[in-house]
Every structure is written in structure tokens, then in C-alpha cells.
Amino acid sequence: xxxxxxxxxxxxxxxxxxxxxxxxxxxxxxxxxxxxxxxxxxxxxxxxxxxxxxxxxxxxxxxxxxxxxxxxxxxxxxxxxxxxxxxxxxxxxxxxxxxxxxxxxxxxxxxxxxxxxxxxxxxxxxxxxxxxxxxxxxxxxxxxxxxxxxxxxxxxxxxxxxxxxxxxxxxxxxxxxxxxxxxxxxxxxxxxxxxxxxxxxxxxxxxxxxxxxxxxxxxxxxxxxxxxxxxxxxxxxxxxxxxxxxxxxxxxxxxxxxxxxxxxxxxxxxxxxxxxxxxxxxxxxxxxxxxxxxxxxxxxxxxxxxxxxxxxxxxxxxxxxxxxx
Length: 325
What we know:
Layout: E1 3-8, H1 12-21, E2 27-33, H2 40-43, E3 46-49, H3 57-69, E4 73-76, H4 79-86, H5 89-93, E5 98-99, H6 104-111, H7 113-120, E6 129-130, H8 135-141, E7 146-150, E8 160-162, H9 165-172, E9 178-182, E10 186-195, E11 201-213, E12 216-222, H10 226-238, E13 243-252, E14 257-263, H11 270-275, H12 280-289, E15 304-306, E16 320-321
Parallel strand pairs: 1-2, 1-4, 2-3, 3-16, 4-5
Antiparallel strand pairs: 6-9, 7-8, 7-9, 10-11, 10-13, 11-12, 12-15, 13-14
Helix pairs in contact: 4-6, 6-7
């Protein structure tokens, strides 16, 4: 079964998704981004420049691409695009286009870290969190060290470790819309999951983070952990997901798993799960197209990933269609 997939934006994670989808040569891949130098624009079969999601022209341009390229599936790759397109999924569905995104209600709970905590902390183990970030409250409820980050942040931007009250007083003024979280000294894990349109968990692959830079896993290893799988199943029972989701967890020094946060989109390090035998982005597209999933055997041995930079060279600006086309 052939099909056309629109991947956006076409930066680091979009590029990973494009590489995953290229494993099936019958798929045609269209990429879109606001930045001409986004690498995915030049790796896909065709690339489009588009306006920002905050501009009224954004939706008209997406509709133009859908019609012109006969798009079957839209694959959003970051939080902003996922939320924006999910809220317009019903409109797109009228032209038989499937958006690989969870329901807006689910996204709302996941993209606001305080809402995630309020909704799940009595059901699954989580570090203590607070949005009352005065020194007295944080000192008594959370203690130090602690983590401060934006409630709606992603990609490790504006995340800081607080060693004491002096750090807290400084970062309260410098982190937008902050939430303070208990610091857990333990191993950090990411679980890539695939959920079908009925909300059923199809696959889960757990990776242990060895090294990261700016929120991007640089070195990691496939490491199945049953206790984390059980935690992930509980989360899936509480939230109606669809597509590829990334769930961040940790195992503390007492070997107890805890949920850190939920990224209701494809994870930056999903390529390791793909290399291990679970091409979740491609399988998500197959689900959207109504095609059966035919998976190869998962590797039995530990599989490590070590990332490095790779360049692409762009000959001229006419390789990508502009927003005025």
C-alpha cells in the first residue's frame, strides 16, 4: 500500500522520522518547515516552506500542500505542531487525511507539566512538584537539590538544577512559567510507545540515557525494564494516546520507578528503537493507512547508540517551494 506522508517541522526530530519512513520505498514523503535550512526539507521527496503556526496563513498553506500532494497522513514532530494540528484533525479528516496526534484533551494534560502531575501523581509514582515557587514552600515541600523548568517547556530548554535557595531566587526570575520538581538521583529512561487509534498500547521500547546534550540523547542503550513497562501501561490506561509517544521515567537509588514527564509526540532518540527492530514511526503511518504491521525480530543483545553530527549541502534555494507558490 502506497501513501503520502507530510512531516513537519523538518528539523532534528523530523529528519529522524523521515529516515524511518524511507525504510518503505512505497511511501512518498513531503516535508514542511519555516526554515529553508531545515535538513528534512532536503532529505524528503519534496519540501515546502510554510508560515509559522501562529500566522493565519499557516492553515491555508497546509491545506494547499494536502491537495497538491494528495497527502494521506500528517506526522507532526514537535509539541507546537502536534497540538495545533490535533486541534484541526476533524477538519483534515473531512478530506480523509489522518493526523498522527493524540486527542487535544490528552495533549492539554501532557504539555502542561503541572496538569500532568495533578492528573497522575495519585495513580503512578512521580517526584514531588509545585508551582508555588516561593523559597519557604519549595524548601519545605521539595527540598534541595531540585529541578526548575517551564511548565510548558520541551527539549531541556530552561531546565536548571537548584542546589540551594540562592539558585532558586535567581532562576525564579529567569525561567518562564516555572515548576519546581524534586531531584531524583537515578538512571534516566525513555520509553517509545506506539498506540493505535483505539488507544490500545501496541509496542513499548525502553532506552536508558547515557549522555544527552540540549535534550537530545547522544549516547543511549536499549534496556528493557519490566517495572517501567508496568508504569507505562498505567499511564496509557489513564490517557488516550494515538501514534508514537515518548514517556520519560527514572529509577531512583532504591530501584523504584517514577514518571518524570510525557512527550505526546515522537521522541528525539526513537531511531535507537528503530535500529533494534521496532520502526515505530513507520508502524504509526501504517496504522493511519489501515495497513497491517509486519515487524522483524527485535535484537536480543544490548544495542547502543552513539550520535554524531552529519552535514548536508544545499545547491540552491529552488529545491524547496516557497510559501508564495
